[in-house]
Amino acid sequence: MSTQEEANTNDSKGQIGDTKPGIAGVLCQAFIHSPLSPLLYIAMLALGIYGLFATPRQEDPEISVPMIDIFYRMPGATVQQVSDLLIAPQERVLSEIPGIKHVYSASDKEMGMITLQYRVGQDMESALVRTMSKLQANQDKLPPGAEPAVMKTSAAVARSSGGTGS
User: Fold this and answer.
1) Do residues 82 and 74 lie in contact, with contact meaning Cβ atoms separated by under 8 Å?
2) What is the pLDDT at residue 19?
3) pLDDT tens-place string over residues 47-62
4) Could you tell me the pLDDT band of residue 14, with boundaries at 50, 70 and 90?
5) For residue 58, how far is the Cα from the chain centroid?
6) What is the structure's pLDDT at 17?
7) Is residue 88 exposed (0-12), middle (13-18) or buried (19+ Cβ within 10 Å)?
8) Which of 20, 66, 122, 161 is most buried (most C-beta within 10 Å)?
9) 146 contacts 112 by C-beta, under 8 angstroms
10) Mean pLDDT throughout 91-110?
């Protein structure tokens, strides 16, 4: 046989050299040739299915997010005046309240609204007290002609859309 034929014969047998398999190769060979491998796979599958059914969950968990809407009126003011003189300064003051996640605002002719969204898990009563005390402490910063703030509370309910229920 020529050297070329020997090389082709070695390649067809899958022998490339005298390299020995590493740790991963030895482990793979042990599992490939072991009669216990199918039994281990079935046991892992059974444990996974058991875990799927044994884990408690709700189909649509309700998460309460405290929100407070604060309404302002400023008779005779334009949208720009309401935004610049009334809403923007109050928004800065109210954003300092501990537990606030987001502060949203909207301005219209003669009126404006600020919505405070608290972090999930915040107590609504303590959020109301903190907001009311902050409003009262900064009432002197309202521009002339602005009426005192009116608060409206709500607890937005967010529904989780993750997973399937049982």
Assistant:
1) yes
2) 84
3) 999 999 998 887 777 7
4) low
5) 18
6) 59
7) middle
8) 66
9) no
10) 92
